[in-house]
Amino acid sequence: MKRVLIAAAAALLLSGLPADAAPKQGGSIVITYKDDISTLDPAVGYDWQNWSIIKSIFDGLMDYEPGTTKLVPDLAESFDISPDGLTYSFKLRDGVKFHNGRAMTAADVKYSIERAVTPATQSPGAGYFSNIAGYDDVAGGKATTLSGITTPDDKTVVIKLTSPNAAFLHIVAMNFSYVVPKEEVEKYGADFGHHPVGTGAFKFVEWNPGQNLTLERFQDYNKKGVPYLDKITFEIGQEPTVNLLRLQKGEVDILGDGIPPAQFVQVTNDPANKDLVVPGEQLHTGYVALNVKVKPLDDVRVRQAINMAINKERIVQILNGRAKVANQVLPPAMPGYDPNYKGYPYDPAQAKKLLAEAGLADGFSTELYVMNTDPQPRIAQAIQQDLAAVGIKADIKAIAQAEVISAGGTEGQAPMVWSGGLAWIADFPDPSNFYSVILGCSGAIAGGWNWSWYCNPELDKRASAADAMTDPAKADERNKAWASIYADVMKDAPWVPIMNETRYTMHSPHVGGDPQLFVEPIHIPVNYDYIFSTDAQ
């Protein structure tokens, strides 16, 4: 807590606020989004828009130190790892309560992970738990409990793996393992995502679809002193340009969708906004997913041709330079990124040759799905023009975020998906995170996020071997192994990596806190637990 308070006080001094405007309990803020939230069920929610809201309502065994990628115990007070890396023992924190008043126990942790793995839940993150003993039986519908998770007492959770996993502590810090009360899940059933109950800093109050969503401070939160805010209101349904005007009038505190691209230069060049605009690098790759189950995209030559047909530099220009051109799956800041990898060049002539080799000299027609929030449709139009230049006619399907997610997760429905606004931002800072759910076989499932429906069993085996390298002394070897895996993914071309984007958030003078909390690499886009109202009395 001390580190956060010092950083927050420094931010206030820089912004010209009184030096004594340290965090105080109280106050409320308003956050805006154009599109509604899809769900607040931690086992199901998996997009940037609901990520930080889910994190505000729920907790997991592990978390990240605010504003950093450093892992620290959360619901766990401490943990031990066996010498062979196969057994994790977590000792739970005292005094943790659910929002319904019941004390959380080890049985709740076990239930929550098993629920994420159970096929009926349709969790897009189920595959993350694949090396917990008993996973195959639960995922295959042969069992309802994971044999690898035991609870010797109410304060102890023991998890046994079938193979070592260097990223396992990151996995139990993800929302898919956040702890939920069984009685509330059974009470609401499939609608639990609209009536969430967790142990987090804020409790759910109400959700009026398409209008607003309200959270309030949880008085019995197990971390004393936080959150600072009493109330958070998410207003939904207005265009980002309107929300910017409202922020400038003092009606809004945080732009959930970021600064509208059309106003970006004007806003960032205005000296009055100097301390209100917060940039932050992300572990992010924006890409076009090419559905390998849909003809003619099932032909690798066609997918390689599409990689060569798209002018990525032009797309970066549409974003006012708020990104760098990507040539591979991993972003530059991620371990395993290969700075020597060249990728596919922008070469329309070679793209035409590959299409001709595939028997498509006259081109073909397809569909490109895109989220309907600016600048995503404009980016899709640029991609459409590039594809047309090599004979590919792509009909743009600009629809709401939730509909894009649904289409991508339905086999055979979306031939191409531009991930903008939904692009992959790392769940945790490890190269494995860009594989299993979005490129591995375990993610190529109904409701999943492997929108290319790509599955290469041989690469899955190599990925498992890389994950088993838990010795820190072999970190370089492990990173090279992942670099090789991603190079071979690109040979199969299920993606067109487009860009690595920098996120810009804007907030009102009425919100204070460490600027890094507004652009956290993990709790995207904002860590609400530690920001505060400067108007609080």
Automatic annotation (TrEMBL):
InterPro entries: Peptide/Ni-bd, SBP_5, SBP_5_CS, SBP_5_dom. One of its GO terms (molecular function) is peptide transmembrane transporter activity. Residues 70-443 form the Solute-binding protein family domain. One of its GO terms (biological process) is peptide transport. SUPFAM superfamilies: Periplasmic binding protein-like II (SSF53850). GO terms for cellular component: ATP-binding cassette (ABC) transporter complex; outer membrane-bounded periplasmic space. It is found in: Periplasm. It holds the Pfam family SBP_bac_5. Residues 1-21 form the signal peptide. Its main location: periplasm. Keywords: Signal, Transport. Belongs to the bacterial solute-binding protein 5 family. PANTHER family: OLIGOPEPTIDE-BINDING PROTEIN APPA (PTHR30290:SF9), PERIPLASMIC BINDING COMPONENT OF ABC TRANSPORTER (PTHR30290). This is Peptide ABC transporter substrate-binding protein. It comes from Hypericibacter adhaerens.
